[in-house]
Amino acid sequence: MKVSHALLALAAVGVAQLAQSERHQRQRNHIAVARIQQDWLARVSSDPELAKLWIPEDLEPEEYVKLLHCNQMMCALSLRNRLGLARKGKLRFCADYMMDREIGRRYWARFGRVREEEATDKAEKRFNRAMDDAYVSRPETSPAGF
């Protein structure tokens, strides 16, 4: 092998390692942000005084806490999707599981549009579409507006 070919191969390996390292750092960042979100949701849902600061005017405190718990599950499932651990059939299974439950449907009816508005990339949009498809497929629900 010529030296120039060896240098090209070495450069290609280096570029691939840099790309993989950058992808892993993005994943670690998403995990860190998700942990902060989960901690905050747990704190708000267990502290009535803190919850009062965030309750939308049209919700009762008990219902808001229930929806926060559902949001915790939604955030965890969204992270699994983002990390590639819940794609296609698995994502559809998770979405159906959530929408099989009344609390999942109530959550999506109330906050699905908010999740769609805050979605910034393909992973979030894919997750939201799966949840909305599962929501709409239930005979007792109607589209959340997507």
What does this structure look like?
- By secondary structure, the protein is mainly α.
- It has one domain (3-136).
- 79% of the residues lie in helices and 0% in strands.
- It has helices at residues 3-46, 48-54, 61-82, 89-99, 102-118, 122-136.
- Helix 1 (3-46) crosses helix 2 (48-54) and helix 4 crosses helix 6.
- The longest helix has 44 residues, at 3-46.
- It is elongated.
- The termini are far apart.
What attributes characterize this protein structure?
mainly alpha, 146 residues
Tally of strands: 0
Structural class: mainly alpha
What's the total helix number? 6
Rounded radius of gyration (Å): 20 Å
Uncertain segments: none
**Proportion of helical residues:** over 70%
Q: Identify the overall geometry.
A: elongated
Oligomerization category of the chains in this entry: single chain
Query: What's the end-to-end separation, in Å?
Result: 57 Å
What kind of sheet is the major sheet? none
Mean pLDDT: 89
Provide a brief overview of the structure.
The protein has 146 residues and is mainly α. The chain is built from 6 helices and no strands. The longest helix is centred in the N-terminal third of the chain and has 44 residues, at 3-46.
